[in-house]
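Batch manifest, entry 17 of 40.
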Amino acid sequence: METTPIRVNTLVTDTDTLAEALQAAGFETARLAWCEEALTVRGASARALTALPEYERGAFFIQNHSSLVPVLALAPQPEEAVLDLCAAPGGKTTHIAARLKNQGEIIANDISQQRIYKLANVLKQYAVTCARTSRMPGHLIWQRYPDYFDGVLVDAPCSMRGTAEHSPSEVKSLAKQQKFLLKSALSAAKPGGTIVYSTCTTTVEENESVIAWLLEKHPGQVSVEPLNLPAVPFAPALTEDAKGRPFAEPIALTRRILPTAELEGFFVAKLRKTNR
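Output type: structure tokens
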């Protein structure tokens, strides 16, 4: 039976109400144990769900459940200022807004004008009023917002290994970009602020090695925090880099989600800015 994962937009409705509406439309729903605003819809294609009036009014977002984890790790609270550094197409931005209850500030940044246009439409559809879009190179945004944000999400462009093949040189280029984005996020976070770094790839160069690089380049300025999400089906981080060199002990606090029939592969690291 075909299944589609969705996230309930709690700015518009609640999980019970949406589940009842979907069941009335002939679909079977199941709750996700580790995220109260997530449902799996059985017997429904994404195309069928987008034809529903609930979708048109922004009551739910079709979103793989693995991609909920970065926002759960960030744990934004009402009245906080949050930067979504690579925001398009907007799934995680709208999730952050729902967790903020539209009370606070989100800067939703992307470098592409076309993606920004689509992002703005998504924010409108999903009743997000606390966010404004920004079109800046992510590695430079800290210059406009130094030591500013309570939370920063870096859901970085990546090679999506397992979905598309990329050459070693492309992976190396992406890893370089990811490092600069993460460094910018560190500078944009206020002391004590939270930074979550995530990708949907499996390469160690784009995951554990990026975090190890940041720790090496900024000693005493950033720490790796445990991901206290006990019900999420995490797998351990890798213990050594692509050349077989062991990582420092803090890298063991980062986590992977292994790809399954229902979950996309993901890497997630939660960081804390300790000082300037």
